[in-house]
């Protein structure tokens, strides 16, 4: 069976987890724009103050940071910082051919921890709660990266 085929349960698991994380990251962009349009503020670029049908009454205060928008931007920044690591580490992990159940637990565990981190951040929960969900995801990322590293090291050193 081809390793990079959706017929392979490991790769299908990766595909589902990766797609969910990408949908989440793209969703954050849409949520940011929605919030900016809702309050007509939180803009970042001076050209956003040009009079248009979307912004018929521009005002310099629209460029001021707005917590309603900035909270979502911080969540999106977290996605942009972590998503590339997940996508690469998870793909290398799947290529190392772990047992399916372990792969499902780790990959879906990462998705769940990321969604819980989002929910905690979005609803302004304590730092401790956010940090707990982030830590779970971070530990999973370390395992995802360490597994193929260990397999490749064994292969190089011992031809296994």
Automatic annotation (TrEMBL):
Pfam family, one: MAPEG
GO (cellular component) term, any one: membrane
EC number: 2.5.1.18
SUPFAM superfamilies xref list: MAPEG domain-like (SSF161084)
Topology class, membrane: Multi-pass membrane protein
First-listed, main subcellular location of the protein, grouped into a coarse class: endoplasmic reticulum
Reaction catalyzed: RX + glutathione = an S-substituted glutathione + a halide anion + H(+)
GO-annotated molecular function: glutathione transferase activity
Location relative to the cell: Endoplasmic reticulum membrane
UniProt signal peptide: none
Gene3D superfamilies the UniProt entry points to: Membrane associated eicosanoid/glutathione metabolism-like domain
Key words of the record: Acetylation, Endoplasmic reticulum, Membrane, Transferase, Transmembrane, Transmembrane helix
Superkingdom of this protein's organism: Bacteria
Transmembrane domains' residue ranges: 12-34, 83-100, 106-124, 131-158
Biological role: Conjugation of reduced glutathione to a wide number of exogenous and endogenous hydrophobic electrophiles.
Subunit and partners: Homotrimer; The trimer binds only one molecule of glutathione.
Name under which the protein is recorded: Microsomal glutathione S-transferase 1
Protein source organism: Bradyrhizobium frederickii
């Amino acid at each position: 069976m081809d390793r990079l085929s959706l017929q392979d349960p490991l790769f299908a698991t990766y595909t589902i987890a990766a797609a969910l994380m990408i949908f989440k990251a793209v969703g954050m962009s849409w949520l940011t724009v929605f919030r900016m349009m809702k309050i007509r503020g939180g803009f970042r670029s001076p050209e956003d103050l040009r009079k248009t049908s979307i912004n018929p009454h521009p005002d310099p205060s629209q460029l001021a940071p707005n917590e309603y928008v900035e909270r979502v931007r911080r969540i999106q920044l977290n996605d942009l910082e972590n998503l590339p690591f997940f996508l690469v580490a998870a793909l290398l992990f799947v290529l190392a051919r772990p047992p399916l159940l372990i792969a499902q637990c780790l990959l879906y565990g990462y998705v769940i921890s990321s969604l819980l981190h989002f929910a905690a951040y979005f609803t302004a929960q304590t730092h401790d709660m956010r940090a707990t969900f982030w830590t779970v995801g971070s530990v999973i990322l370390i395992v995802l990266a360490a597994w193929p590293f260990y397999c490749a090291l064994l292969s190089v050193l011992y031809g296994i």
